[in-house]
Specification:
Blueprint (H helix, E strand, L loop, with lengths): L3 E9 L4 E3 L12 H12 L3 E5 H6 L8 E4 L6 E4 L2 E4 L6 H8 L4 E7 L1 H10 L3 E7 L8 E2 L10 H7 L2 E10 L4 E8 L1 H7 L2
Parallel strand pairs: 1-7, 1-8, 3-4, 3-7, 4-6
Antiparallel strand pairs: 2-9, 5-6, 8-11, 10-11
InterPro entries: DHFR-like_dom_sf
Protein name: Dihydrofolate reductase
Organism: Microvirga aerophila
Length: 192
């Protein structure tokens, strides 16, 4: 099977939220430097995996190949707007083999249930940006574990990912970025 790398991408508030209480990304999480970084990363990916709501809310002007996680799929279906996948019916190993036969880099920009799903499958890396000085009470957390009081960092560490150096993307934001990398044996298992 061709090698597949799985990269998660999220910008979170200080309380580890990716959306407000209505499920929308608020302006406090929108940052030009983070957006430019994210778009350049997407340009390096062969496939973008996201939930149905994210797919519907975000146009695809660059026509990037998408795989939409949805229970409305009967397994894996190719539709006009990309692949639609139901992980309850077809495992990732089969879905990725069919949607990405040559292998390559996969971007996972969420939402929460998709982030949780790929915690189980195994990330090669998770690019965690943080908008410092922001809070979204009642908002949607990046991982379900954050609902039980875990931080995004502790969830990633518990999934055998190690933090790289923190980098400032925007000192005025302020927004920082930490790329969490999988340990070697975890990385191998994510390809199967």
């Amino acid at each position: 099977m061709a090698a597949v790398e799985i990269h998660g991408y999220a910008i979170v508030s200080d309380d580890d939220r990716i959306a407000d209480a209505e499920g929308r990304m608020p302006d406090v999480l929108r940052n030009d430097a983070d957006w430019a970084y994210f778009q350049s990363e997407l340009d390096r990916c062969a496939l973008v995996v996201l939930g149905r709501l994210g797919h519907e809310a975000n146009p695809n002007p660059k026509q990037r190949l998408r795989l939409v996680v949805s229970s409305s799929s009967s397994g894996l279906e190719q539709r006009n707007d990309g692949w639609w996948w139901n992980p309850a019916v077809l495992p990732w190993s089969e879905a990725s083999r069919l949607a990405l036969p040559q292998g390559g880099r996969v971007a996972v920009p969420g939402g929460r249930l998709v982030f949780d799903l790929f915690l189980e499958i195994g990330y090669t890396a998770f690019h965690l940006a943080r908008a410092h000085g922001t809070r979204l009470p009642g908002g949607v957390p990046v991982f379900s574990g954050c609902l039980q009081g875990q931080t995004a960092e502790s969830v990633l560490a518990g999934s055998r990912l190690r933090a790289g150096p923190r980098r400032v993307l925007d000192p005025a934001g302020p927004v920082s970025l930490t790329v969490w990398q999988a340990e070697r044996e975890t990385r191998r298992s994510s390809w199967s």
